[in-house]
Amino acid sequence: MSTSNRQDFTDALERWNERFALPGYLFGLEPNAFLVKQSARLRPGSRVLCVADGEGRNSTFLAATGHAVTAFDLSPVAVEKARALAAQRGLEVDFNVAGTDTWEWAAERFDAVAAIFIQFAAPTQRQALFAGMWRTLRQGGLLLLQGYTPKQLEYRTGGPDKLDHLYTAELLRELLPQAQWLELTEHEAVLAEGNGHHGRSALIDAVARKG
Fold first, then answer.
1. Region 89-96: what's the mean pLDDT?
2. Which pairing describes strands 180-193 and 137-148: parallel, antiparallel, or unpaired?
3. Is 56 left (phi over 0), alpha (psi -120 to 50) or beta?
């Protein structure tokens, strides 16, 4: 890892630890509405990976619906809060502290990957991130992804303030040319996910199957 990359990693870790250390849950306790809807596509008892899971709202939801869930996040502060949330709810989740660049993307390990607002990844990191998520899916597995589109810069109700971190349908098709797209929709909706995502938002919903 170059000196620049180490500095970027340190800066991101400090920034997210600081945000997650605030009282309460940054993105609330309720699961992401897109994930709730799309989870109906999952077979009972699926093995699911939650990428950059934060404080556990999404991983604990999936565990509560009967799936075998593995989750990771860069911030140990967030992971500790996620473990506390799972314990409070009497749920088992395999929580890990890791970044997307250090996580072992084991081949064909999961039936589904949940990637909800993972737009911290710069363009230079994005190709490797998407390749890893795709590699770890089993044949027939699903990538469930929600993110922000460039129009989000007009709303500023969550997400990055950098245009090159935002998604379009065209960009996702380029990143995963081999995917079978079950859904790939740009739209707007009002989010109420804690203080982190709150208000009218420009979104993209994506469901890709690994054929």
1. 98
2. unpaired
3. left
Q: Using the structure block, give the residue that is written with the tokens 């997210």.
A: 16
Q: Domains in the chain, start-ordered, CATH in brackets?
A: 3-209 (3.40.50.150)
Beta-carbon-side half-sphere exposure of residue 170 (alpha carbons within 13 Å): 1
pLDDT tens digits along 184-207: 999 999 999 998 999 999 999 999
Residue 168 has pLDDT above 90, yes or no: yes
C-alpha 26: how far from chain center: 15
From the CB of residue 38, how many other CB atoms can be counted at a distance below 10 Å?
21
Q: What are phi and psi of 152, to 5 degrees?
A: -60, -25
Q: Which amino acid is at 51?
A: V
The model's pTM = 0.93
User: What pLDDT digit, counting tens, does each position of 36-81 carry?
Assistant: 999 999 999 999 999 999 999 999 999 999 999 999 999 999 999 9
Please name the residue that has the structure tokens 């340190």: 10
136-162: per-residue pLDDT in tens? 999 999 999 999 999 999 999 999 999
β-pair partners for 207: 144, 183
HEC states along 44-102? CCCEEEECCCCCCHHHHHHHHCCCEEEEEECCHHHHHHHHHHHHHCCCCCEEEECCCCC
